[in-house]
């Protein structure tokens, strides 16, 4: 198993949690972004810089992911593609996307985009909180523990 990170929009605090987890459980984590990222020196932490462009990082992740891999992303279509390939997707706020909930998330996302295209202000996500960070860390630990048992 590997962990892939849709790193352009991933909060730095989540990246730090992932860096510590990668070293602790000795799993390869690869951050994919269209810009250069500073990462700690570790044989478990990799960085891939892709060219700029719409969905270039997402497409790279989809091409590379294998069944059982974990992808950290808030991008619902990317999460859906990962689940379709047999991977797992966890958003930075700790929600694990599954075959049971991904269709609903896609429908909600599409509805929100439709509203925004008509000029409706739908707001945005709430500010990233300490609680979000704790939930993410807990869900990540649970996921990694299950992978070790399996």
Would you write up a description of this structure?
- There is one protein chain.
- The chain has helices at 12-25, 56-64, 76-84, 102-117, 130-149, and strands spanning 3-6, 29-33, 45-49, 70-72, 88-90, 96-97.
- It is α/β, with parallel strands linked by helices.
- The protein has a 6-stranded mixed beta sheet with strand order 3-2-1-4-5-6, with helices on both faces.
- Strand 4 (70-72), helix 3 (76-84) and strand 5 form a beta-alpha-beta unit.
- The longest helix has 20 residues, at 130-149.
- The chain starts with a strand and ends with a helix.
SS strand fraction: 5-15%
Please give the share of residues in helix: 40-55%
Q: Please provide the count of β strands.
A: 6
- H/E order of the elements? EHEEHEHEEHH
**Major sheet: order of its strands?**
3-2-1-4-5-6
Describe the sheet with the most strands: 6 strands, mixed
Tell me, briefly, the overall form.
globular
Class computed from helices, strands and strand pairing:
alpha/beta
Query: For the CA atoms, what is the radius of gyration?
Result: 15 Å
In round numbers, the mean pLDDT is 89
Stretches where pLDDT is under 50 for at least 5 consecutive residues are: none
How many helix segments? 5
Q: Ends: how far apart?
A: 11 Å
Note the quaternary state here: single chain
